[in-house]
Write a structure and sequence with these properties.
The structure is a single chain. By secondary structure, the chain is of the alpha/beta class. About 45% of the residues lie in helices and about 20% in strands. The chain is built from nine helices and 14 strands. Helix 3 crosses helix 4 and helix 6 (about 185-195) packs parallel to helix 8. The chain binds adenosine-5'-diphosphate (ADP) and N-acetyl-L-glutamyl 5-phosphate (X2W).
């Protein structure tokens, strides 16, 4: 290929992105990055560069991060066994300390530092400053659901062109203590509060598939009726259930569209948003 045609191809790639950039200027995208998509530091770097790119073209990215795998590892190092009920970590007094420490001292600062290193501006915001909650079930201990979001800090950060990076913990309205919140549910609550144009989940699967183990069975687009049918058939199970259920709730609450993408694919975010063919599963009402 001649130098000139290679250069022209680069221009074509940029021009394919142009209508998306024009359409999304000033829009808020809530991006949830799961612990399972944060295993490989090279891919995390690529993802965070994409976030800086989004911000640079006038989109307002807001990040809610998980950290389930890192929390389980920290528990193991402290001699504690991780236990889950329907995807929720059973969280006793000792566990909530580990959850808070892992999120506040390891995961959150890592994301903030990297965004800053890539030339963006990020600010870490503890979920307790944003999410108000209540305990879910006695058997889960200090696990909460979000009852309200305080948007002041997020809006101030966005106005100052900072990317807010929020951890999945909430302030318990009754006791004032910290509650451990499933990061998917925290992301949905915040996306709804912000009326985000898009809610994007980065996980460790291609999207919703008919057969987990066969990527060629990826389902590109889903609505409420098809989700219910797939759940009834047991095709959507485990960790995917809270993701799709809370996604539908967010859509009903005013979020524009939900995307499930594979965070292990290099530059998954840019590919999903700025190219004509998405790479994951799109959920709409
Ligand atoms: N139909 C399905 N398609 C894809 N993944 C599914 C499906 N049903 C269940 N899953 C499970 O959902 C998991 C993703 O949810 P989860 O583990 O909670 O991710 P994260 O840690 O990123 O939040 C997948 O790893 C997969 O095991
Ligand atoms: C209540 C509950 O289960 N909280 C989660 C919070 C982190 C999370 O959800 O992280 P991922 O997105 O990486 O799974 C936990 O303790 O693992």
């Amino acid at each position: 290929m001649s130098d000139l045609s290679a250069q022209t191809q680069k221009a074509d790639v940029l021009l394919e992105a142009l209508p998306y950039m024009q359409g999304f200027r000033g829009c808020t995208f809530l991006i949830k990055v799961g612990g399972s998509a944060m295993e490989d530091p090279v891919v995390v770097d690529q993802f965070l560069r994409d976030v800086v790119f989004l911000e640079a073209v006038g989109i307002n990215p807001v990040i809610v991060h998980g950290g389930g795998k890192a929390i389980s590892k920290a528990m193991q190092e402290s001699g504690l066994e991780a236990r889950f009920i329907n995807g929720m970590r059973v969280t006793d007094e000792e566990t909530i300390k580990i959850v808070e420490q892992t999120l506040a001292r390891v995961i959150n600062p890592e994301i903030v530092t990297k965004i800053n290193a890539f030339g963006g501006k990020a600010v870490g915001i503890p979920g307790t400053e944003v999410f108000q909650g209540q305990r879910m079930k006695a058997e889960l201990g200090w696990v909460g659901e979000v009852t309200d979001c305080k948007l002041g800090l997020i809006q101030a950060a966005v106005a100052g062109e900072f990317v807010p990076v929020v951890s999945p913990v909430a302030r318990d309205l009754e006791s004032g203590k910290t509650l451990n919140v499933n990061a998917d549910l925290a992301a949905c609550a915040l996306a709804t509060g912000l009326k985000a144009t898009k809610l994007i989940f980065l996980s460790d699967v291609r999207g919703v598939m008919r057969d987990h183990k066969d990527e060629s069975t990826l389902i590109p687009s889903l609505d409420e009726a098809s989700i219910n049918a797939l759940k009834a058939d047991g095709i959507i199970s485990g960790g995917m259930i809270p993701k799709v259920d809370s996604s539908l709730e967010s859509l009903r609450g005013g979020v524009g569209k939900v995307h499930l993408i594979d965070g292990r694919i290099p530059h998954a975010l840019i590919l999903e948003i700025f190219t004509d063919r998405g790479i994951g599963t799109e959920i709409h009402l």
